[in-house]
Design goal:
Order of helices and strands: EHEHHEHEEHEEHEHHEHEHHH
Structural class: alpha/beta
Number of strands: 10
Bound molecules: D-glucose, magnesium ion
Largest sheet: 8 strands, parallel
CATH superfamily: Divalent-metal-dependent TIM barrel enzymes
CATH class: Alpha Beta
CATH topology: TIM Barrel
Distance between the termini: 20 Å
CATH architecture: Alpha-Beta Barrel
Helix content: 40-55%
Strand content: 5-15%
Strand order of the largest sheet: 3-2-1-10-9-8-6-4
């Protein structure tokens, strides 16, 4: 496998996990956050994805000065490890005030909390030297449709995006769509919704998308087509590559672990568009299996990165002229057979 392929990889500290699920105890001891950063480079990763409270734990109870000083310390620590922050995301799903959503909560005071928290997240990102804010709109949705005015909810989300663009004129907002979990139905379920919100915003050039493979699959969509849609609008800011075995809970499986051909097609679409040449990261939002022994468990990150690079090589070894001829002849039977044999490594 060639490591000369110039892709930059990232993950978030939550991807080294305790193996929790709702039906049993955690199976691995918590691994201290601060010690995770030393693991990135040896695993082949240089980008760190953060939630605001990954950078500044307990930020709700801090003064702005305390918050910014802690963010400054993390910036120095990243530099010492040769790492860069890819994005910071406001964690709008743990506080008492976010039980019913954040920007779309029915409570005015809770919506105020969400906005203040978002401003703090932006301040933390800037103190860290990072201009990208990811919005995974976790609880913006409903469990029953009558609970919220959905039209108003979309207006509130757009209003927040515009307020963020005004609050800091240099940041970019990357929306990570997801159709469900923890809510029954989420308000920004697909990249189509994200791109529409971007164009409706006051500065669409600064509003983009982050596509997670599993989230697209949960919406019943093909991740490579979702990526192609965003790329066609020059709105693919980042990806969370992983995999998902059908319509169930969000699995965050290893990239290619459920459907190698679908993983190949994501790589193909990214390669065809020259994704990464402007510094975009290959983010891997993968979780180790609950059954895996050890602490910390990081093999899933190493393996997913390796599979990605193997698939890049597979794409580059594809006979593009043959593909072109099959397309022109509308011989998709032959094309499919060629692709499957190519993936299997047989002639
Ligand atoms: C959950 C999401 C989550 C986000 C992360 C960054 O389903 O994938 O892991 O990617 O919170 O915003
Ligand atoms: Mg994700």
């Amino acid at each position: 496998m060639s490591d000369s392929i110039p892709y930059r990889f990232s993950f978030g500290p939550w991807n080294i996990s305790e193996g929790a699920d709702p039906f049993g105890p955690e199976v691995r001891p918590a691994f201290p956050h601060e010690e995770k950063f030393a693991l990135y480079r040896p695993l082949g990763f240089e980008g760190v994805q953060f939630h605001d409270d990954d950078v500044v734990p307990g930020l709700d109870g801090m003064t702005p000065a305390q918050m910014l000083s802690r963010a400054g310390e993390v910036k120095t620590m990243l530099g010492n490890h040769g790492l860069v922050p890819e994005f910071v995301a406001p964690r709008l799903w743990f506080a008492d005030q976010t039980v019913d959503g954040a920007y779309t909560s029915n409570s005015e005071s809770d919506r105020k909390y969400a906005w203040e928290r978002t401003q703090k997240c932006i301040d933390i990102a800037r103190a860290l030297g990072c201009k990208a804010i990811v919005l995974w709109l976790s609880r913006e949705g409903s469990y029953i449709r009558e609970a919220k005015d959905a039209r108003l909810a979309y207006e509130r989300i757009l209003g927040t995006i515009n307020a963020m663009l005004e609050y800091d004129r240099e940041i970019e907002i990357w929306i990570e769509p997801k159709p469900n979990e923890p809510t029954d139905q989420a308000y920004v379920p697909t990249i189509g919704h994200t791109v529409a919100l971007a164009y409706a915003s006051k500065d669409h050039r600064r509003v983009k998308g982050l596509i997670e493979s599993a989230h697209a699959l949960l919406a019943g969509l093909d991740p490579s087509d979702e990526m192609a849609f965003a790329l066609a609008h020059d709105k693919l800011a980042s990806v969370h590559l992983n995999d998902q075995n059908g319509l169930k809970y969000d699995q965050d499986k290893n990239f290619g672990g459920a459907n190698l051909r679908a993983a190949f097609n994501q790589v193909r679409v990214l390669e065809e568009a020259g994704y990464g040449r402007r510094g975009e990261f290959i983010g891997l939002d993968v979780k180790a299996m609950r059954t895996q022994k050890g602490s910390p468990v990081t093999v899933h990150l190493r393996n997913s990165r390796e599979i990605f690079l193997h698939l890049v090589e597979k794409y580059r070894a594809l006979d593009g002229e043959l593909v072109r001829q099959y397309r022109e002849a509308r011989d998709y039977e032959a094309l499919e057979c060629y692709i499957l044999k190519h993936l299997l490594g047989v002639k």
